[in-house]
Task: structure prediction
Amino acid sequence: MERIPHGPGMALGLWEDIMLDVRTVSLPPGTTLLLFTDGMTDCRDPKSEPFGLERIKSVLSELSNKNAQQVCDHLLDTLLKFQEGSKQDDDVTLVAIHANSLIK
Result:
């Protein structure tokens, strides 16, 4: 699984004028690009263990044959089971883009 590097960015919706990073990525057919907020990684279980990036990568690696909606649904279900009803301190946003074929 390739991780696309990024630098610090600005929060959206807090200021009127913002500077956005612009990146271009190539997604080979069958590739899924997953975007998520820190509410996903920072979510904690009843023992206060964070969900974390490694767990996201592990779950995502099992979903290579799923479409973008199925990836988001499965990740959210996995997060909720992990959380076991613990209080969520931050919002969770997931966006998945699944490349089906090359555009010609």
